[in-house]
């Protein structure tokens, strides 16, 4: 059962990292959309 003591923190860190990356990608996509909209409005 000693493996669990190592695996659980690793799993938590891995899941946290994946969630963080997903959130970062979503935020980036929103920023890009917002920037494009801003630039389009500026050109009018």
Describe the structure using short key phrases.
44 residues; mainly alpha; transmembrane helix
Describe this structure in words.
The structure is a single chain. Helices cover 95% and strands 0% of the residues. The protein has 44 residues and is an all-alpha fold. The protein has one domain (1-44). The chain crosses the membrane at residues 6-28. Keywords: Membrane, Transmembrane, Transmembrane helix.
- Largest sheet geometry: none
Q: Estimate nothing, just give the exact number of structural domains.
A: 1
Overall shape: it is rod-shaped
Helix content, binned percent: over 70%
Distance from N terminus to C terminus (CA atoms, Å) equals: 66 Å
Number of helices: 1
**Residue runs with pLDDT of under 50 for 5 or more positions:** none
| Strand-residue proportion | under 5%
Element pattern in H and E: H
Q: What is the β-strand count?
A: 0
Mean pLDDT: 93
Gyration radius over CA: 19 Å
Q: Give the structural class.
A: mainly alpha
Transmembrane segments: 6-28
Keywords: Membrane, Transmembrane, Transmembrane helix
């Amino acid at each position: 059962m000693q493996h669990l003591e190592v695996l659980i923190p690793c799993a938590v860190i891995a899941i946290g990292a994946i969630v963080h990356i997903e959130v970062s990608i979503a935020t980036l996509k929103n920023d890009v959309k917002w920037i494009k909209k801003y630039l389009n409005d500026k050109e009018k």
